[in-house]
């Protein structure tokens, strides 16, 4: 018996259970379940964006990366009039990368990143987002008002070194554990493609070393050894020459992102507190549940922000003292000096 995927019209009909929904500027995302199968649906403002998204997924697959496959799409003018421009992707088999991944999983991740970064395009260009990637140094300098002149000079010099590099590699843009899928054979796949961008791949690579699943020296070395063995000679040279700058940029970008997240969730909480005052009881209860969840989100973001800020502040001092030190060794020293917030 042939296992037929449902059409876009069937996935958008009332029989499909909506498990998750999210809006971005150009894309609306929806996860649905129909006949005990889950699908990820994307709605696009234009047909051109939809086709570009589909072509990018095919390009990732062509590079040897395990990605979600397109199983349904808006294919007729009548479907467009009824629903708009939609793509449906299958669920990728496997499970999210755990916080304590094994050696084979880290090796596979390093090799997958090398394949991803082999794809190139226009410099510093987001594929589907309105906000374009940029170096975080100026925003970091504006946010960190207590820096010494010596630290500010190092940050500006580091920014100048990175500006001279080609920011043309395809990056995932949201490479945390839940978007990295590990299969039973230890192979790695990537999901969630809304934030794909051409950027300095070394910043995302360095950010991967700072994620909770990679905060140990041995795990970092396993991943980096697999990546450097698999990547192009040009990217290998970039890491060896500018690895310290890339780690600083990654930590600064992650810290600033956590600050943005706290501000965003705090603004949402103001609206939720208004919801708690409404007379309709289900609305009040839903607002209270979301407020409690947001408290946990803010606490987690602030914990991660403290970790990333420790990396930025400590890394500058270590680089000034040991300008030729190995980035992994510097990260290990940063971790030893980190004091967890109470």
Automatic annotation (TrEMBL):
<dbReference type="InterPro" id="IPR002575">
    <property type="entry name" value="Aminoglycoside_PTrfase"/>
</dbReference>
<dbReference type="Pfam" id="PF01636">
    <property type="entry name" value="APH"/>
</dbReference>
<dbReference type="InterPro" id="IPR011009">
    <property type="entry name" value="Kinase-like_dom_sf"/>
</dbReference>
<feature type="domain" description="Aminoglycoside phosphotransferase">
    <location>
        <begin position="32"/>
        <end position="227"/>
    </location>
</feature>
<protein>
    <submittedName>
        <fullName>Phosphotransferase enzyme family protein</fullName>
    </submittedName>
</protein>
